[in-house]
Design goal:
By secondary structure, the chain is mainly β. The protein contains seven helices and 21 strands. The longest helix has 13 residues.
Amino acid sequence: MLKGPMRPQALLIAAVIAFGAACSPASSPAPQPAGQRSNSDKLEPQPKGTDNNNLEAGVDLGRSGASPPHSDLSAVIEQILPSVVNVQTTSVVQDVFGDSSQGKGQGSGVVIDEDGIILTNNHVISGAVSVEVVFNGGRTMEGRVVDAVPERDLAIVKVEATNLKAIAIGRSDSLKLGDDVIALGYPLGLGGPTVTSGIISGENRNIQPQGGPRLEGLLQTDAAINPGNSGGALVDSAGRLVGINTAAGTPGAAENLGFAIAIDGALPIVHEILEDPPEQRAWLGVSLTDLDPAAATQLRLDPDLQGALIVEVFPDSPAQVAGIEQGDVVTGIGDTEVRSADDLIAALGEWDPGERADLKVTGATGSRSETVQLGERPVTQ
């Protein structure tokens, strides 16, 4: 994984503790032996006068014959489960002596198109030589990695199928703090889907997962996200996809601290992957986020300035060769105005690898123009 240069204190917009990606199986928790009762569960002597005859006769006290009604939440989950899959990978691992062996990993994914398009995290499939997709109910299909965008930790996997159940897509920008959300995935190698619920605890969070790129504009939730949940669905109370689960606080350092890539930021990446193969897409080689007034103030820029803030420049990338630096703000490319990170991503889609693009850049030394010879997007980083 490519690593960027050290970040100046001015860019420490969000304080981040140690985070681990919510991927790869972990040992399952030990189940409590069936029928075993703890000391606190001992049967106490009945008060004098209590009639225990009905217990001996097998009478079911306080129970009616009808099953309790299911919650609205269970109905939503039932609709979503066919769209959430287990992504199992095989990779080739070399030890210190150069001997190769197979490594196994797993995460989750979400069906976003009925013709077999599955959205997951890049770190779920990174380095995989084979991918299998397991659907709820046990159906297994071979998957093919279409492409990945490591700097956004997103990837598309394709299975040869039609008429799959695609999840409904929501809008992450409509969420408010305290809104109910549900996380679905296949954590800990437990053999089936797991559902947890919580609320939106924070918005527009920036984190640096261990071993991964800096991620910007994430949703924070207290719904439990465990290893193997990566790439799974974060949905709103109506069952609409609002995020892709990607990371969680390190156990022991944080509690109830999970993060998901907001779907509004993920969809432009999905369209980019599906519309053009990587060798036909221009690559700048940076990690981006929107410039907000707080960041602008920290960078000693005009608080009203709008543009795409460069938070990381990949080594040997076209941006680095052209002199683009961390903390620069791109406000235009060619004749196109850039007011956000998504604006720059969309604009790059109109350029071809090898073309020379003039970037309008504002940085610590003022505004300037940089000419960048765009490269081909690597399939993996």
